[in-house]
Amino acid sequence: MADADRNAAASAGPLEPAPILKRIRWGGTKLGSLLGKDLGEGDDWAESWEVADHGDDQSVVTAGQYAGWSLGRLVAERPRALFGRHATLPDGTPRTQFPLLIKFLDAADTLSVQVHPNDEQAKTYDPSENGKTEAWVIVDAERGASLYAGLKPETDADALRAASEAGSVEDLLHRFEVEAGDCVFIPAGTVHAIGAGIVLAEIQQSSDLTFRLYDWGYRDPQGNPRQIHLDESIACTDFNRGPVDPVSPRPLKGLSERSERLVEGEYFVIDRHTASAAFPLPSDDRFRVLMTLSGSATLLCERDSIELPTGKTVLIPADCKPLTVEPAAGGVTLLESYLPS
Ligand SMILES: [Zn+2]
């Protein structure tokens, strides 16, 4: 245990990180209209990084004992309070980075077709990077909006390369329409694209390694195509990842009226609570990230309480006592993400 940790005996309670907003050409304005983010001018607000410890992208705590601290500083100076049982990696070395990157995305336009490397592949491209397994939970979808996930059966590297060059990659992708509440799990190596008209929550390994396979013929305002990483994409594609469909949630007993497990993977677990009556959040020596997907609630803590309007994300350190979620009239839907085991 670090000396600094020993001095900080009392839990600081849940942390409220400031969102980091990103403008990208495919973004829109729904991060503001649906999720309450404070957007400026413009209609290309694409991503809100809610919990981030990735290079210069650092979540900063907005209130309480750690106001002004970056997530990276908390990892370095308060590892035991933040991570609890996960303060060291399975091989015994101290954890030096917050392992999850958590975002809201507004895809007003279609994103490029892409693939992410796994941990082993990532290190060959950038020793400081991680692989990227991710999951999406749809917050809002326009009628007919679609996702692309996984390849059609029997697609091999030659077929994918030829299709990328011919501009016909879409023919090889599994496509399906989505609605609010759908969850899709995208392990590293799964070819994917997010279609236009979708707002989603994204839970992923902390990584920014993306290889673009196909860009739908997009040209920037100067008329230039964006770079395609064809060799890297093909090298990182898992050709056994055939059609990927939304997950089937598994009911969880004894929490809220309706608690479900959406994802239980090597890198993260995602549960969803849909509630109109108060329910407890356990304290079991690990951090949790809560995102309010719809409705609102109050998070009752030891000393005070935190409002959870739609679009709000809080990081609950491992040393927090058990908490209570008190939904407002009309109920709340919360997404809870944490590390497995
Ligand atoms: Zn992705």
List the helices and strands and how they pair.
Blueprint: H1 3-7, E1 20-28, H2 30-33, E2 45-51, E3 53-54, E4 57-58, H3 71-77, H4 79-83, E5 100-107, E6 113-115, H5 119-125, E7 134-141, E8 146-151, H6 157-166, E9 173-177, E10 183-186, E11 192-194, E12 198-205, E13 211-214, H7 230-236, E14 250-252, E15 258-264, E16 269-275, E17 279-281, E18 288-300, E19 305-308, E20 313-316, E21 323-338
Antiparallel strand pairs: 1-2, 2-5, 3-4, 5-12, 6-13, 7-10, 7-12, 8-9, 8-11, 14-15, 15-16, 16-21, 17-21, 18-19, 18-20, 18-21
The chain binds zinc ion.
Domain Phosphomannose isomerase type I catalytic: 22-125
InterPro entries: Carb_Metab_Reg_Kinase/Isom, Man6P_isomerase_Firm_short, MPI_cupin_dom, PMI_typeI_cat, RmlC-like_jellyroll, RmlC_Cupin_sf
GO molecular function: mannose-6-phosphate isomerase activity
